[in-house]
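Risk mitigation, structural track. In case the binding assays with adenosine-5'-triphosphate fail to produce interpretable data, a predicted complex structure has been prepared as a fallback.
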Amino acid sequence: MNIQLNNVKKSYQTEQETIHVLKNVNVELESGCWLTITGPSGSGKTTLMRCLSGLESVDQGSILLGDFEMSKEKEEKTRAFRREHIGYVFQDFQLFDQFNLLTNVMVPLLPYEKKSVIEQKAKQLIEQFGLSERMYHKPSQLSGGEKQRTAIVRALMNDPKLLICDEPTGNLDVNSRDQTMKVLKDIQQQGVTIILVTHDLELTSYSDVHAMMRDGQVNFSSLSYA
Ligand SMILES: Nc1ncnc2c1ncn2[C@@H]1O[C@H](COP(=O)(O)OP(=O)(O)OP(=O)(O)O)[C@@H](O)[C@H]1O
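Fallback model:
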C-alpha cells in the first residue's frame, strides 16, 4: 500500500495550552517498503501512527493510503478501512484482561467473520509466534514479551496491507526481538508495508527507509539522536 502524507498538522488542546505535536509532516512510502521511525520521547511518533491509522483525525493536511484519502473520509468508512487493511500493534498492547490469549486475538474480527475460520487462522499465527502453550492464559498470566507477541498476532489477523508497530519489541530480550523482526521481515516479503516506531536504533537495519521525528516533523536524512 503506497502511503502519502502532505503537510499534516495535529495539535492537542489542554486547559492550559495548545500542544502542536505534528507541525508539518510529509511522508512518501512505496508499497511493500519498511519504514522505521525513531526520535526522542514526546516527539509525536505515536500521534503520527494514530493519525495514519485513522484513530485520530488531523487538523490539516492529507493522508492518502493507496487510493483511500483517509483525511477526507467519514469515521465509519475509516473504521472499515482500518479493519480490512491495517494492522496496529499498540505500545501498551491493549489486550482485554478478561479474555484469554486466543480470544484476545480473535475478538476484533468476531463480529465480522465466521468463528471457525478466525479460530483456525488465530491458532496458526499463535503457533508461528511460539505462543501455543499460552493460548488459554489470560494477559495477567503472560510475560511482557508474550503480551507483546500476542498484540502482534492480533494485528496480523486481518492480513493487513499496512502494519503499524509502535515499539513492538520494547519488552523483548534480544533473541525474541530478533525473532520477531525476522517474522516481520517475512511478512514484509509477502508485500505488506511496515511502519515501525522504536527507540532501538539497531532495528533500523531491518528497514528499507529510516526517518527521524523531531520538533513535529519527519526527517528522512538524519540517522542520529544528536
Ligand atoms: N490526547 C492528548 N492530549 C494532550 N496531549 C497529548 C495527547 N496525546 C499526546 N499528547 C502529547 O503529544 C506529545 C507527543 O506524544 P506522543 O505520544 O505522540 O510522543 P512519542 O514520540 O510517541 O513519545 P514516546 O516515544 O515516549 O512514546 C507529547 O507531548 C504528549 O504529551
